[in-house]
Request: fold
Amino acid sequence: MNEPDEPIVESPELVRPYVITNGRGLPEDGQFNLITLVTASDQPRPAHLDPEKHRVLDLCAGGMLSVAEIAGHMKLPIGIVKVVLSDLSSEGYLVVRPPVPRAQLADVSLLQEVLDGLHARFG
Amino acid sequence: MGSTPGSADAVYLDGGVKTAAKILVVGHFAVGKTTFIGTMSEIPPLRTEERMTQAGAQVDDLMGVRGKTTTTVAMDFGRITLSEKLVLYLFGTPGQERFVQVWEDMTKGALGALILVDPERLKESFAVIDLVEQYGLPYAISVNHFDDTAIRSDDELREALDLLPETPIVTCDARDQKSSADALIALVRYLQTRTARSMT
Reply:
């Protein structure tokens, strides 16, 4: 795999994905971060749903994934995926497990868990 | 996995996972971030893209394109399930100043950063270290060791990179899982000591 550092510059006519979000950007205090964990809820889907929402729900129906993984599998930019997820969540189609808030992240016990996990897996 | 609905190539998390943590793997172009993540990840590394629509006049000038241009920054990432309740994500983050918008998102909620350094190209790491410091992220230095590179002493590196005495320096071969895991462990140990200190 190549190093991804070099930006790819696209011409405006190739910028399609915001059509999916009806031109909306991301809400500032978005509920979704790269490592927010998401899975589909039991709520039945209506017959009419945007194709991208369908695809996201199909993907999420299999189990839990992070927002970044959903974007990676769908080959869509993170920003777009967050908007789609935010819609699906407010409509009740998703179960969302938000990341640990920053203050708790400094938590000694979380770091200990990470350390124990690394030792257990790679020790 | 695999008999469930969903995407054919998605590897899902265990249902019991409650917490996701994030560590950034940063470094200059071609320093080995992608290799490191590939070595450590339990899933084939994925790539995400972040679009920077307001990339600014600087980029427009650079590219000689008028009007609204979109720059796409790609980041590779991987996943390590650490226990039945905890998953760790490793994000490879480009270290260029012009990707500041991406950095805001990447650093939010990150435990810390592992900075990969090529001892033959130390100068190229300056900008990366500046960025990590600017975002207040604690970090460890991992000297990516290739077979034919001369090993520099820690003191030399510390001085050249202007590091604090406490900043860990480890040597690692990004192609080797044990060696890469040891680099992560050194970082997490350091994060623990910092946290313990801030609580007293």
In short: Chain A touches chain B through 58 residues (CB under 8 Å). The longest strand of chain A covers residues 37-40. Residues 108-122 of chain A form the longest helix (15 residues). The beta strands of chain A are 8-10, 37-40, 65-66, 94-97.
